[in-house]
C-alpha cells in the first residue's frame, strides 16, 4: 500500500483559498483588520487657529476701506491708521487731558483684578455652602437668585449714596457683576456631580473636607471654568460702566474725556484696549481649561 503524503491543499472537497488581493471579496463573518488612516489631527489643529483669524481680518479690512473712502465720515468712524497713530501718541506722550494709555490700562486692570478676586472668592464659597447642604441652599440661593435679577447698572446711584464716588463703588459693582455667573455655574456643577462618587468617597472613609477637595470640586470643575469665563466678561462690562462714576484715571476716564472733547479716535482706542484685555483674559482661562480638562480632549476630537 502506498501512503499518501499530500498536503491539505490536495484533499478532495476542500475549497481553494482565495488569494488576498485588490479584487478579493469580503467573507461573511470575517472582519478585516482596520487600515490606519493617515493622521490629520496635527495639521488641522495648527490650521484651526489661523482660520479663526479670517473673519476678524475681513472686518478690519472693511472698516479701513469704508473709513478711508469716505463712505462713513472719519469723524464717526476713524480709520485704523488714525487709531494706530492715536494709540502711539497716547503711549509715548503724557497728555494733561488723558494721561498715558498704559497708565490708564494699569489702573483699569487693578480695578478688575481686585473686584474679580473679591466677587469670585465669595461666589465659590457661597456656591459650595449652597451646593453641599439643603440648609445652605435655603439660606444662600434665594438671596443670590434675587441679586441675579437686579439690574446691575441701575445700582450705580445706590452705590454712590452708600460708598461715595471713590474706588469703593467701582470695586463693588465689578465684584457683584463677577460673582453672579460664577456662583450659578459652580452651584450647578456641584449639584451635577454623580452621587455614586460621593458614595465611593464614603466607602473610602474620606472626611467632609477631603470629599469637597477630591470629589466635589474636581467634578464641578468644567462648570466652574465656564462660570469663570462668563464672570470675567461681566467684570469687564461692569468696569466700563463703573469707570463712568467720576473717575479721574483709567480707560473709562479716557472715554469720558474723549466724549467731552468730541475725539472719536481716542474713544475707539480705549474701546480697543478693553477688547484686547477682555480677549486676553478669556484666552488665559481657556488655556487653564485646556490643561485642567485634558480628559475631555478625546471627546472633543471625535
Plain-language structure description:
The protein contains 12 helices and no strands. It is mainly α. It has a single domain, classed as MetI-like (MetI-like fold), CATH 1.10.3720.10. Helix 6 packs across helix 7 and helix 7 crosses helix 9 (208-242). The longest helix is centred in the C-terminal third of the chain and has 35 residues, at 208-242. The radius of gyration is 31 Å and the shape is globular.
Secondary-structure blueprint:
Layout: H1 41-51, H2 54-68, H3 80-92, H4 101-132, H5 134-149, H6 156-163, H7 167-191, H8 195-203, H9 208-242, H10 251-260, H11 264-292, H12 297-301
Helix pairs in contact: 3-11, 4-5, 4-7, 4-9, 4-10, 6-7, 7-9, 9-11, 10-11
Short précis:
With 302 residues, the protein is mainly alpha-helical.
Main beta-sheet annotation: none
Oligomeric form: single chain
SSE topology string:
HHHHHHHHHHHH
Number of strands: 0
What is the radius of gyration?
31 Å
Morphology call:
globular
The helix count comes to 12
CATH T-level fold name: MetI-like fold
Mean pLDDT: 79
Helix content: 55-70%
CATH level 4 superfamily: MetI-like
Amino acid at each position: 500500500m502506498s501512503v499518501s503524503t499530500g498536503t491539505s491543499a490536495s484533499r478532495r472537497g476542500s475549497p481553494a483559498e482565495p488569494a488576498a488581493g485588490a479584487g478579493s471579496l469580503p467573507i461573511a463573518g470575517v472582519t478585516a483588520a482596520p487600515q490606519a488612516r493617515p493622521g490629520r489631527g496635527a495639521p488641522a489643529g495648527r490650521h484651526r487657529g489661523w482660520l479663526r483669524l479670517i473673519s476678524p481680518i475681513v472686518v478690519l479690512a472693511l472698516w479701513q476701506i469704508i473709513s478711508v473712502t469716505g463712505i462713513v465720515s472719519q469723524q464717526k468712524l476713524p480709520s485704523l491708521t488714525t487709531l494706530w497713530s492715536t494709540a502711539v501718541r497716547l503711549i509715548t506722550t503724557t497728555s494733561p487731558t488723558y494721561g498715558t494709555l498704559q497708565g490708564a490700562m494699569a489702573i483699569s486692570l487693578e480695578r478688575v483684578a481686585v473686584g474679580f478676586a473679591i466677587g469670585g472668592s465669595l461666589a465659590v464659597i457661597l456656591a459650595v455652602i449652597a451646593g453641599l447642604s439643603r440648609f445652605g441652599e435655603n439660606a444662600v440661593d434665594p438671596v443670590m437668585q434675587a441679586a441675579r435679577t437686579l439690574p446691575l447698572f441701575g445700582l450705580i446711584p445706590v452705590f454712590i449714596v452708600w460708598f461715595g464716588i471713590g474706588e469703593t463703588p467701582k470695586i463693588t459693582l465689578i465684584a457683584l457683576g463677577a460673582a453672579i455667573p460664577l456662583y450659578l455655574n459652580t452651584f450647578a456643577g456641584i449639584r451635577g456631580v454623580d452621587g455614586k462618587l460621593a458614595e465611593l468617597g464614603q466607602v473610602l472613609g474620606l472626611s467632609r473636607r477631603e470629599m469637597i477637595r477630591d470629589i466635589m470640586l474636581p467634578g464641578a470643575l468644567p462648570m466652574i471654568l465656564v462660570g469663570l469665563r462668563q464672570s470675567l466678561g461681566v467684570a469687564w462690562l461692569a468696569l466700563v460702566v463703573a469707570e463712568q462714576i467720576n473717575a479721574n484715571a483709567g480707560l473709562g476716564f479716557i472715554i469720558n474725556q474723549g466724549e467731552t472733547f468730541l475725539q472719536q479716535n481716542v474713544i475707539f482706542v480705549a474701546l480697543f484696549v478693553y477688547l484686547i484685555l477682555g480677549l486676553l483674559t478669556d484666552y488665559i482661562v481657556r488655556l487653564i481649561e485646556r490643561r485642567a480638562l485634558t480628559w475631555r480632549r478625546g471627546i472633543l476630537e471625535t
